[in-house]
Structure formats: structure tokens, C-alpha cells
Design brief:
2 domains, 8 strands, two-stranded antiparallel ribbon, single chain, 7 helices, Zincin-like, alpha+beta, 4-stranded mixed β-sheet, binds zinc ion
């Protein structure tokens, strides 16, 4: 069995750090003062039978003691899947992990859980049966663009 390696993100990792900066500026301004360390692990971990693309958590006291920048949050990304992901998928994953990170320097940092957790077959059998699922459903419906917008975008393609 091969050993797990964990290394810190660098410039060779497909602009992960500049993606992170851009996302914080655009959607997570409360994190602009947070010290966030990005790590890559290889091979990826599994959780409940699923490949884990990334995780976010608060920095542990030991990490804060050992690392010069005393990380408030640690993002752990799966190295292999990151390499084969598109830029859009990378941005979505980082944006997702940043959504877990809340708080500020004054009141301290904490973690936030997912808006929605359910099984596809439950949605298929029972629809959007509770409030958080309804909100999720309406967000999905808003993604469906009106026809004129689709045509406008198609014409804009060179
Ligand atoms: Zn998550």
C-alpha cells in the first residue's frame, strides 16, 4: 500500500492560489483577512464510499504552532482529481470549500455545513419535500436561461 503524501500548494498547481484570491474578492470578502493554507494530498481520501475532492477545516493548534502564518483554515485538495479538472471545476471546488469557512478576525472563525443533503432517489420519489430543498430547486431552475439569452450567447461565439 502506497503512503499518503501531503504537500503545500505552489505555483505549479494550476493557479490555485490566484483562483483562491479571486474567489475571496468576488464572493467571500469576510475571508480577506483569514490565513488560508492549501494542501494537496495523494492519493485522495474516501468518505462513505465516495472520492473526496476537497475538504475545509479550521487550522489545528498544532498547525498554528508549527506554521509561520498560523493558518485559520486549511483546505485539503485531492491532487490527482485537481490535475484532471477543468478551470471551471477547480473554481467551483474552491468556491465550495470557501463556503464552509465563516467568521471574522474579531469574533473568531468557524465552519458551516452544506445547505442541502439528501439522496437523488428521495428527490425522484418525493420531490423537493422540505424548505432547504425547495430553495436549492429554485436556484437550479434559475440556471435555465431564457431562449433569447442562449441565442445571444451563441451569436457572440467567434
Ligand atoms: Zn462541502
Amino acid at each position: 500500500m502506497s503512503e499518503t503524501t501531503i504537500r503545500r500548494a505552489g505555483i505549479e498547481d494550476g493557479a490555485v492560489l490566484s483562483h483562491l484570491r479571486d474567489l475571496i474578492e468576488a464572493h467571500h470578502e469576510h475571508l480577506s483577512d483569514a490565513r488560508i493554507v492549501v494542501l494537496f494530498r495523494d492519493p485522495p481520501s474516501m468518505s462513505k464510499g465516495k472520492l473526496v475532492l476537497g475538504t475545509a477545516r479550521k487550522g489545528t493548534p498544532a498547525e498554528r504552532a508549527l506554521a509561520a502564518e498560523e493558518p485559520d483554515f486549511v483546505l485539503m485538495l485531492a491532487a490527482g482529481p485537481w490535475r484532471s479538472a477543468t478551470v471551471a471545476q477547480r473554481l467551483a471546488l474552491l468556491d465550495h470549500e470557501l463556503c464552509h469557512c465563516v467568521g471574522d478576525t474579531e469574533n473568531g472563525w468557524s465552519m458551516r455545513g452544506h445547505d442541502v443533503e439528501d439522496f437523488t432517489e428521495i428527490i425522484e420519489r418525493h420531490g423537493l419535500w422540505k424548505e432547504d430543498l425547495e430553495e436549492f430547486g429554485s436556484a437550479v431552475r434559475q440556471l435555465e436561461l431564457p431562449l433569447e439569452e442562449v441565442e445571444r450567447r451563441l451569436r457572440a461565439v467567434p
